[in-house]
Amino acid sequence: MSKNRRDFMKVGAAAVGASMLTPYAGFAERMDRDERALFSMAVNDAGEYTLPPLPYAYEALEPHIDAQTMRLHHDIHHNGYVKGLNAALKDMEQARGSGDYGLIDRFAQKAAFHGSGHILHTIFWQNMINADKSGSPKGMLKRQLETDFGSVDAFMAQYKNTSAKVEGSGWGILAWEPLGRRLVVLQAEKHQNLTQWGVAPLLVVDVWEHAYYLKYQNRRGEYLDNFMQVVNWEDVGNRLEAVMK
User: Do both 196 and 83 map to the same domain?
Assistant: First the structure.
C-alpha cells in the first residue's frame, strides 16, 4: 500500500467522512490484491490519486443525461476533487516534515471535502449504464430491498423523494448498514460530514446543480426520474454482495 494511501486512511476516521471511507478500510488488503475491487481508488506510481476514466462514452447515457454535462462533470468537477485531495495530502506531508501544524485544520478540511467528493463520484460513474442495459434489481439486491423497504417500488419512491429534498447541494445514497444488517437511504448535504458513519455506499446520485443544470435547470425531480433509467443495477447488486460478505 502506498504512503499516500496510508495517510489517507489515517486521516479518514477523523476528517474524511467515515461513512465513505469505511468500505475502503474494510477492503484495504483485498484492494492490494485486486485493483478492480468495488471501492478501489486508483493511484499512480507516485502514490497520487488519479481521475478514473468513465466506463462508457460521454454520450452513452443520452437522452437521460447529456454528453456535455458528463464531460464537464467528469473532466472538470471530479478532476477538481482529485487535484484538491492530492494537494491536501502534500500539504500534510510538508507540515509533518517541518513540524508546522498551524494550518493542519485547513488541510484536514480540504482532505475531507475533496476526498469524499472523489469517492462518491467514483461510485457514481460506475452506478450508471446505458438505459438499454439498466435492467432492474435482481437476486440478493431485490430480496434485500423488499425486506427493508417493503417492495422495490417503495424503495424507488423513497430514494427519489429523499434525494429530491436534499437541502442545497449534496447526494442521495442507498447504503448497507452493517450493524443492523439492513439497507438505508440517506441524505448527504455536505458530503464530507453530514453522513451516517459506518455504512457502505451502494448507489449514489449527485444532486449538486452541476450534475443536471444544463439539461434540467431547476427540475431536480425530473433529473432523478431520468437517473433511475440509467442505474446499473448489476453494479449495485455486486456492491451489496461484496459488503454483505
Answer: no
DSSP-assigned beta bridge partners for residue 174: 185, 203
Q: How many domains does the chain have?
A: 2
Q: Cα 125 to the chain's mean position, in Å?
A: 9
Residue 13 shares a structural domain with residue 119: yes
Report pLDDT digits (tens) over 103-153: 999 999 999 899 989 999 999 999 999 999 999 999 999 999 999 999 999
Closest CA to 188 of 209, 206, 213: 206
- What count of Cα atoms within 13 Å lies in the side-chain half-sphere of residue 106? 8
Beta-carbon contacts of residue 212 (< 8 Å; ≥ 6 apart): 65, 69, 219, 220, 223
Domain CATH for 220: 3.55.40.20
Residues 163, 89 within the same domain: no
Distance (Å, rounded) from C-alpha 138 to C-alpha 231? 13
Q: What pTM does this model have?
A: 0.82
Q: How far apart are CA 103 and CA 105, in angstroms?
A: 5
Residue with cell 448535504: 189
Residue 117 shares a structural domain with residue 12: yes
Condensed to tens digits (0 to 9), the pLDDT of residues 185-244 reads: 999 887 766 545 678 999 999 998 999 999 999 999 999 999 999 999 999 999 999 998
How many angstroms separate the CA atoms of 186 and 195, rounded? 7
Q: Domain of 90? A: 3-126
Instruction: Among 99, 126, 153, give the residue marking a domain's end.
Output: 126
Contact between 204 and 172 under an 8 Å Cβ cutoff? The reply is: yes
- Check whether residue 239 and residue 223 sit in a common domain: yes
